[in-house]
Amino acid sequence: MAISDTVDALTAGIDLSANPRKTGVATIAWDGDAATVVECAVGHHDDAALCEVVRAAGTTGIDCPLGWPDAFVDFVAARRDGGHDLQIPPDRRPLTYRATDLDVWERTGVRPLTVSADRIGSVAMRCAVILAMLTRSGTVVDRSGRGPVIEVYPAAALKIWELPHRGYKGQDPEARRVRDELVNKVTDTFPRLDLADFAQACRDSDDALDAVLCAVIAGYARQGRCEPSPEGLRDLASREGWIVLPGPAA
Predict the structure, then answer these.
(1) How far apart are CA 126 and CA 145, in angstroms?
(2) Rounded distance between C-alpha atoms, residue 14 and residue 214, angstroms
């Protein structure tokens, strides 16, 4: 699981929530093929602190849509401007799903939440503000999956890695059992990933675990083992965002 020849290269993961108290953040230090979690916390980062996490890392994976479907944005703009000619198309998916959502759904069988019709839209609003803060401070943000900030989706990554990707969220006994099993399988699948003092935090909180997974995917991206948006969709992805999927576990 080598990432580079640079000692202590850092990647970060942010499991973003509209509520800062539910936002998980993890940072992984890489030394050759060894990866160690050096930070993992839930509920301790406001927007400014999240920007500092991004600036300190080489690559940061954020579990949140980085944009909205073009068709939805056009629909809302037309409604603002009078909306006299608005019609709902027979296929509503372009209004509710981005190109990347449909791509992930087709390739993995895991369907992302719709940023224009589900509650995750409020998370995306917070994310948009954070990205704007980063841009104003000089950090390059490329929503198409190229650059230091990438959109990631832990459930799809887990499916690609042939690990449990459902049922581990929440605090009911069954979710905790599934999450405990998942942490064990993650450490088996990635033996060079050291959860250090944060293994129990991942067992206790799906927000913490997802943050670590986001940071691992960011590591894959730095290795060149993730796929950015296809060249032909890069312009669209630069507006809508693009979910960066990792390659198989190795």
Answers:
(1) 19
(2) 6
Q: Which two tokens stand for residue 78?
A: 């037309």
Q: Which of 209, 201, 151, 218 is nearest to 12 (CA)?
A: 218
Which tokens hold the place of 2?
């080598």
Tokens of 133: 């803060």
Residue bearing tokens 């948006």 = 229
> Beta-strand (E) ranges in 32-148?
34-42, 59-62
Number of C-beta neighbours around residue 205 at 10 A: 21
pTM above 0.70, yes or no: yes
Contact 151, 143 (CB under 8 A): yes
Please give the sequence-ordered ranges of beta strands (E in DSSP) within the chain, or none if there are none: 9-15, 24-31, 34-42, 59-62, 149-151, 193-194, 226-227, 245-246
β-bridge pairing 9-15 and 24-31: antiparallel
Residue 63 to residue 49: CA distance in whole angstroms? 17
pLDDT tens-digit map of 176-193: 999 999 999 999 999 999
End-to-end alpha-carbon separation of the chain, Å? 7
| Mean local confidence (pLDDT), 151-169 | 97
Are the CB atoms for 212 and 41 separated by under 8 Å? no
Pairing assessment for the beta strands 149-151 and 59-62 based on DSSP bridges: parallel
Tell me how far the alpha carbon of residue 245 is from its chain's centroid: 10
The token pair at 111 is 């369907």
